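User: I'm preparing a small set of examples for a lab meeting where we compare how different chains pack in three dimensions. I only have the primary sequence for this one, and I'd like the structure in token form so I can line it up with the others. Please keep the answer compact; I'll paste it straight into my notes.
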Amino acid sequence: YPSEFLVQKITEDNQIPVHLHVSVSLQYVAGLKGRALVEFFHSNIAEVENEELRHLMWSSVLFYKTPNMEVMACVLLSTKAVYFLLDDSFIHADEHQSGFWNRENSDCENSSFHLSCCFVLKLNDLQSVNVGLFDQYFRITGHSADHIVTCLTRDSYNTHTFIQQLMAVLSLLARTPSPEPVDKDFYSEFGSKNTGKMENYELIHSSRVKFIYPNEEEIGDLAFLVAEKMDGLTNLPSLNILLYVLAFQVNHVEGSAQNTSSLQPKTLILTSSDLFLFDEDYVSYPLPEFAKEPPKRDKYQLTDGRRIRDLDRVLMGYQMYPQALTFVFDDVQNQDLMQNLTLDHFGE
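Assistant: Understood. Below is the structure token output for the 348-residue chain.
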């Protein structure tokens, strides 16, 4: 049984983010406290009798096979595996992936039971962990496309805590020693000596799982991409990315119940002159080793971009975290209004 401190810590972490809605089955899990939570894990989730629950986290997750569908999950880390207890709406919405989810309990659909799907990634199958920019998310990669999951924590603290717990658990694994020498420095071999190109920082854990962190070139690539979207209105050397954050765009749903809104995941990028919203593919990049072709869409797709000089005011909500911000821009169709007026008036 875990210590009192660990039970208390897991109980404190067992809180669904207030802005996200989950199914009844996950609400039940979130209502469990203390020893009841540990007993629930051993009775319903754990695959081996002697495994220990070490960490619990609520997070949105994305699967490599369904990169467009973000779903809420309770992520449980034990000494044997990472368990993703999924919202049952995901299984219903994704029935075309029948090979991915084996639905053997479909006859229980109309009963009083609330079913959840539990996706299991054994620690022995874990190959690498990619940490996203500014620790806003991380991707866990196994040995096939079915075993790639991204956790969108949108919180550097949660990402850091999970990575630390995962490293501690991996240290307990007894793996056969690697044939090549593993006594390398901390950021082992991040520079490729053949091409001269800087690779991402890699930490090879004693369990031979790679922990891969982004380097400064990723920010440079992102700045170049942003400059491209700005149609050459600015000089690339003077373009600084001030903020990169995973957020939600709030879309109010008309004709439905009062005050309902849908949250669209977006990547918000703030530069010294513009504010951008991107649709980002968090799970397909960098390409896994077994990928035979690139993903169907680019990593970043621009959905909206506004100049800071057109910003009229910012409205701040008074609710607790997460904070809602409303950006109000001047409603001018053509950005360079005076130039267009001049051309219309004096042109042929």
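A couple of notes for your slides: The longest strand covers residues 66-78. Confidence is low (pLDDT under 50) at residues 191-198, 337-342.

User: Perfect, thanks.
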